[in-house]
């Protein structure tokens, strides 16, 4: 599936220019990487917002159309307004069909509905939700499946258990000491039970203390009245 992003060149730079663009419902953006110079562009806020609602936009090689020029890029960074959550800036990285690119791809946990341990009320703990991979642009996956269908209570899946698509390498496992860089992706455990400690009140002691307090209070009250007189 091909995803096309439309853009136009922009010449003005700086905070003031960016503010003016946003008032026109445009998003300041940039294309960089490769042997070419960076290109300053702007995107339609409604179009890019709609595209970013699809996870494939984050995990695909995009056809970026700048006027009549086409660039093959991947989405590198999205900056959002801290309060409004609107898109403030987008970075695109050029890709070369002959050179491997390094990027993050999401993990898709499949088989949860068929897992017997989960159907009995146990929990699937997800510790890793994405991994860094290296591959040629043509081999870029939309995600890595983690099959938990047969994962039993007390068992876990680690990075070394993942089955990578052909041509895709997980960068974390390219070190000499693989065990040191391996980590648990998910596990099945019993649900946590929050125990509430009930405070046991001794009624007799409570009443006794209450009586003493009352007598002391009455004595103090009398002394106070005497002093006031």
Outline of this structure?
This protein has 229 residues and is an alpha+beta fold.
Give a verbal description of the structure:
- The protein folds into two domains: 4-94, Ribosomal Protein L25, Chain P; 101-189, RNA Polymerase Alpha Subunit, Chain A, domain 2 (Beta Complex), CATH 2.170.120.
- The protein has five helices and 13 strands.
- A six-stranded mixed β-barrel has the order 1-3-2-6-5-4.
- By secondary structure, the protein is of the alpha+beta class.
- The radius of gyration is 31 Å and the shape is elongated.
- It starts with a strand and ends with a helix.
- A hairpin with a 6-residue loop joins strand 2 and strand 3 (39-44).
As for the CATH topology of the largest domain, it is Ribosomal Protein L25, Chain P
The domain count comes to: 2
Largest sheet: 6 strands, mixed, barrel
Contiguous runs where pLDDT drops below 50 for at least 5 residues: 221-229
How is the topology of this model organized?
Blueprint: E1 4-9, H1 15-23, E2 26-32, E3 39-44, H2 45-52, E4 62-66, E5 69-80, E6 87-94, E7 101-110, H3 116-119, E8 123-126, E9 130-135, E10 144-147, E11 156-158, E12 169-170, H4 178-181, E13 184-189, H5 203-228
Parallel strand pairs: 1-4, 2-6, 7-10
Antiparallel strand pairs: 1-3, 2-3, 4-5, 5-6, 7-9, 8-13, 9-12, 11-13
């Amino acid at each position: 599936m091909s995803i096309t992003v439309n853009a136009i060149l922009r010449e003005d730079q700086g905070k003031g220019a960016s503010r003016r663009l946003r008032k026109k419902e445009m998003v300041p953006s940039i294309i960089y990487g490769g042997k070419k110079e960076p290109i300053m562009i702007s995107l339609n806020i409604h179009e890019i917002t709609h595209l970013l609602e699809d996870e494939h936009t984050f995990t695909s090689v995009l056809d970026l159309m700048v006027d009549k020029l086409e660039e093959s890029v991947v989405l590198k960074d999205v900056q959002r307004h801290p309060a409004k959550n609107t898109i403030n800036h987008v970075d695109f990285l050029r890709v070369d069909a002959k050179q491997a690119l390094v990027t993050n791809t999401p993990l898709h946990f499949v088989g949860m509905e068929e897992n017997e341990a989960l159907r009995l009320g146990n929990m699937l703990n997800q510790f890793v939700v994405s991994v860094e991979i290296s591959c040629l642009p043509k081999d870029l996956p939309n995600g890595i499946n983690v099959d938990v269908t047969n994962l039993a209570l007390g068992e876990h899946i680690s990075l070394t258990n993942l089955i990578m698509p052909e041509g895709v390498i997980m960068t974390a496992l390219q070190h000499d000491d693989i065990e040191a860089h391996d980590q648990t992706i998910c596990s099945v455990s019993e649900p946590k039970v929050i125990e509430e400690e009930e405070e046991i009140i001794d009624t007799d002691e409570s009443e006794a203390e209450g009586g003493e307090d009352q007598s002391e209070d009455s004595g103090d009250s009398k002394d106070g009245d005497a002093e006031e007189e």
